[in-house]
Amino acid sequence: MLRLTPPGFERILQSPQFCATFGGGEANVAVSLAQFGARSRYITVLPFAPNALADGFLGELRRFGVDDRCVVRGPGRMGIYFVETGANQRPSKVLYDRENSAIALAKPGAIDWTAALKDATWFHTTGITPAISESAAALALESVAAAKKLGLQVSCDLNFRKNLWKWGKKAEHVMPELVKHTDVLIANEEDCQKCINVHVDIDVESGKLERAKYRELCERVLATFPNLKMVAVTLRESRSASNNGWSACLHDGKEFLLSREYDITHIVDRVGGGDSFAAGLIYGLTNLGPPSEALEFAVAASCLKHSIPGDFNRFTVDEVKALAAGDGSGRVQR
Asked: If residue 44 lies in a helix (H) or strand (E), which one and from where to where?
């Protein structure tokens, strides 16, 4: 998507200008993985060429080293979203403008999944695409089914977006079918409630989470979907828009792991933080040691993303590992 953001911490149209960048759930993961040195391919449907916005987006992906050769061009326009960055007690706000975008109009069969997934080992998707339209939801289900048939590991970040689920069916009637084709599920507590109807009484408004309850949440998710190999849940303690506690947990059916907690006292931009976590987890599970190391890498990667504007994570493996190892002083490096 095209992302439009007012300068600094201004409200939308406080001044007549926007900063134009690109972003979106799956694209953010693809870019982050490429930054980590992994082979990364992005698959979607964009407007027919020539289209300056779509062409610019593809050029940005290539700049980061993401393979865009399997992107399909079709009817429709480029999706747009607006981000108003919050501060202190004023929350950030997101406005979506995605109706009649190319991916919203795309139908099953629009993408040759056998060709698009050739030589791939891992497929990642999110709950954002199914929220856009009924046909996009069907295409998303087709994608995970094809990936599993081809023997890929499949991860899904539930990413519930209430402002997008407008087309008819609710998330809880759509997302469980995708999860049935998933190996690694990524979520937060609201995602589990709204997307897969798994409920645990967790208070997320007080700014202090009861971490013990997340073991119960993970166990319920794994019991509901026995096909899952593991579930990772992010824990955000929102003390204000500028100050969050950040950590995560992971359960593989045998062991429950809880990460280190980061106190993020000055958030520059939290959009894309969850995608950085997903990319970090995928990279960690495929390139590092035990799941505990992958979890710590993912949380550290996401923590760093909160320090830069824009959707894309721009940190290397060494930088993430340094933070995960305890180097979080912020001292100038000369």
From this structure: none
